[in-house]
Amino acid sequence: MHNVDLAVIGGGPAGLAAALAARRNGVDNILIIERDKELGGILQQCIHNGFGLHYFGEELTGPEYAERFIEMVREENIPYKTNTMVLDIQADRTITAVNSREGLLKIRAQAVILAMGCRERTRGAINIPGDRPAGIFTAGCAQRFVNMEGYLPGKKAVILGSGDIGLIMARRLTLEGVEVKMVCELMPYSGGLTRNIVQCLEDFNIPLKLSHTVVNIHGKDRLEGVTIAAVDENLQPIEGSEEYVECDTLLLSVGLIPENELSRGVGIALDPVTSGPVVDETMATSVEGIYACGNVVHVHDLVDYVTRESETAGYHAAEFIKNNNGASGSEVHRTIPGKGVRYIVPQRISNNSLLKGFKIFFRSDKVYVNARIAVRCGRQVLHSVKRQKISPGEMEILDLKPSHLENIEVSSLAENGLTIELEY
Known about the structure:
By secondary structure, this protein is an alpha/beta fold. The protein contains eleven helices and 27 strands.
């Protein structure tokens, strides 16, 4: 049995930032556990720039952003195990892991931070009919092939889904000489950042077909083409709108899912919308001593926000350890997605946060123009702010300061919770 103060599961941007924040808050015995052969997570294959503008104030590539945190981890002498897979976590924070060097490991931690990130939805998750030929990839898989393994997936491509990875791969494939025929998006709006639509599609004259999907896949051994069709307001294909597109490659960018198997196994309450753990403003989960951060909680747009959130988790996990595994004991209240809001993180807030303020992250359920975000407790409006445009593809952040919360009635908060809604 290995004993550590803090075990961080995942050595991507979330895990690295959390471990550093815990070390800087006085925790010495930390172990990072990473299943890949190197630290850095998904950033190692994201060779495009655009990372670090918020956190470092300069534009970096994914590997450059990751390398800065890897260097800081090494400077702080924080131990890590790579090529190590966590199999199980118990409620007493006992971790079972395995690697080829040491075999089966048992690690007992005073606190655990979950930072496993997320995975892509596959063809099986969206049930596209047709044959099963070679040439169908998730966008992230194709990204790794091109950027890290040196393989080109094909010569003529269609991309289904306008998530950020799909948009970025449309540009990447074009730069490598692939003919990207189009990007099809089921919804009437894009699922990616506006800057990626401009820089990855419009700058390269790649068509974006909104309210379109792939309804059939053709080809026996290798993909030969796909049939696309327009969809109605119920997202059902419109008869007579079918169009055959010749291609040898289909990339799927149809959403990300938090890696929640370990979370579910230890009995952590999961949010049915995000599929990630329910957390409070300290990033504590429903199981004492276990914290979560980054894309394992909810899918972020920018790694800079992952880093900030993970620093919160690391700081408060350290506080938990220094308090001899003692919880704060503060009363916890709900946050409630109101009209126009799909989900909110954190899903719980404590009385302690009312004195310090906290950030709320949320996504809308569709595109809204000239809408107002209102924060209320029962009938009491605590704060409101106007936005010119709110889209599901871009996460909204509200910074609630103590001045916004000073007049809140705690008894009303306990009864009604804190509601975020859109007025339009």
